[in-house]
Design a protein that fits this description.
Layout (H helix, E strand, L loop, with lengths): L13 H12 L2 H13 L4 H28 L3 H7 L8 H33 L8 H12 L2 H20 L2 H28 L4 H9 L8 H14 L6 H6 L8 H29 L9 H12 L4 H35 L3 H20 L21 H28 L2 H9 L8 H23 L2 H4 L4
The structure holds phenylalanine.
């Protein structure tokens, strides 16, 4: 494979790519966010709809992104430039992706920092013997502390930069080869423990028994929106990772495997969290505090809880790290490819700028902060952190996904598209189905999402 002459870098193996791409996909979105939105939307039916969104919209777009990356051997901006016959405006989609990666990493790193702080708290036994009120107020204390937020945010960014500086195969791939298996082992240990919890049966029913009365149109659309975030779609992460693939890797089966792993981890996270929540009679709809409050509260009352809590937060940190790496990689690779900057310079410079841009997010919950709710003199209702999370997850990623689907489905030359889909693939004969999905089903789904968010479906009385 790579003879060292390619300055861009290349995966050492197909497994390396799959682990790195799964590392990107599996993150805070799976372990922190998916359980609490599932809790909020009543489980069951929401989970089924989410699975449908992953299969019908997420997977086809993921295959499309990886194909564009592999065909052009370039990060997003260069990729849209290189495809023969593509109009120059498509480059804007590449730039939008880079901007999205930049924004997401700036606040993602703050939550990742909480997972590091919670690992430390668990190890040091801060939760053992603490009352539920004390633990709940610990979370409030963490999010409102300038020092804790900034310190861990910087620490997380430094580690992320260190790995991206190492390069595609030596840095990212090697990290994924350690982080992903470790994550699986940690999850299995926690899952086996959950199996013996009193609340397991109740959790299982909650998760898999459809209860239509609890699901709203908003829930359906949240499932769709989340499928972009969780699969790292719509901002060029999968495209960039695909660009380091050798020409004869089976893109279809690799993408399918990544989606299956991502979905598996999200479901497993629920099967770990909900049994604990139900056993201790807590509410599954606790919101963003589900992981940081309910879990330490429940585990503090259990024998071996200190060890389990430590394992859990290490797991969360590992998942966040492998995703953070992919976010920085998109931004750094663009600098490397477009401006011929050295990898180390690109990663360090961009890492520094993103760290700075993340400071307002880190301070968003600090009392009296100018980045709190109503920042910019009341122009924004939410705080800085939530405003950018909203912009990235609800606008930029679905829009990026829509544009990628249109590009791959309609603008990419048929010959290149068919060739890239089919080469080395056992699924070559499925090409017409896939094309149908990227051309019609995925764009239609995303357009409905936007119409709904803009309140237009309500206006015309459809929901
Ligand atoms: N997929 C990651 C998660 O679930 C987040 C992410 C989004 C990573 C977009 C890269 C690009 O947490």
């Amino acid at each position: 494979m790579s003879n060292g002459s390619t300055s861009r870098g290349e995966w050492g193996s197909k497994l390396g790519f799959i682990l790195a791409a799964a590392g990107s996909a599996v993150g805070l979105g799976n372990i922190w966010k998916f359980p609490y939105i599932t809790g909020h939307h009543g489980g069951g039916l929401f989970v089924i709809i989410y699975l449908i969104c992953i299969a019908l919209v997420g997977l086809p777009i993921m295959i499309g992104e990886v194909i564009v990356g592999r065909a052009t051997q370039s990060s997003p901006v260069g990729a849209f430039k290189t495809i023969p016959g593509a109009a120059p405006v498509w480059q804007l989609v590449g730039w939008m992706g880079v901007l999205t990666g930049f924004i997401i990493l700036s606040y993602y790193s703050v939550v990742a920092g909480w997972s590091m702080h919670y690992t430390w708290l668990s190890i040091s036994g801060a939760f053992s013997g603490a009352s539920p009120d004390q633990i709940a107020s610990t979370f409030g204390g963490v999010v409102s502390s300038t020092g804790i937020n900034l310190g861990w945010h910087v620490a997380f960014m430094v580690i992320t930069v260190g790995i991206v500086v190492g390069g595609v195969s030596k840095g990212i791939e090697n990290a994924a080869k350690i982080l992903m298996p470790a994550l699986m082992v940690l999850m299995l240990i926690l899952f086996v423990d959950a199996l013996f919890q009193k609340g397991f049966g109740q959790a299982f029913t909650f998760l898999f028994k459809p209860s239509p009365e609890k699901l709203s149109a908003a829930g359906v659309l949240e499932a769709l929106g989340h499928s972009f975030f969780t699969l790292s779609l719509g901002m060029g992460a999968m495209l960039t990772y695909g660009s380091y693939l050798s020409k004869n890797t089976d893109v279809v089966s690799s993408s399918a495997l990544v989606s299956i792993m991502d979905t598996g981890v999200a479901l497993l996270a629920c099967l770990i969290l909900f049994p604990i929540i139900f056993t201790f009679g807590m509410a599954p709809e606790a919101g963003p505090g589900l992981v940081f409050k309910s879990i330490p509260i429940a585990l503090s009352q259990m024998t071996g809880g200190r060890l389990l809590a430590t394992l859990f937060f290490v797991l969360l940190f590992f998942a966040a790290l492998s995703s953070g790496i992919s976010l920085l990689e998109v931004v750094a690779a663009t600098l490397i490819d477009q401006m011929k900057v050295k990898r180390s310079t690109a990663a360090i410079a961009m890492g520094a700028v993103i760290t700075l841009f993340g400071v307002p997010s880190a301070l968003s919950n600090v009392p009296g902060s100018i980045f709190g709710a109503g920042w910019m003199g009341g122009l924004f209702e939410k705080n800085f952190f939530d405003s950018f999370d909203w912009l990235a997850s609800n606008v930029l990623l679905p829009l990026g996904g829509l544009l990628v689907a249109i590009f791959v489905g309609w603008a990419m030359p048929e010959q290149v598209r068919r060739e890239e889909f089919s080469r080395g693939s056992r699924f070559a004969s499925q090409y017409p189905f896939w094309l149908l999905f990227v051309r019609f089903v995925a764009p239609a789904g995303i357009i409905v999402l936007f119409l709904y968010s803009a309140g237009i479906l309500k206006m015309i009385g459809l929901v």
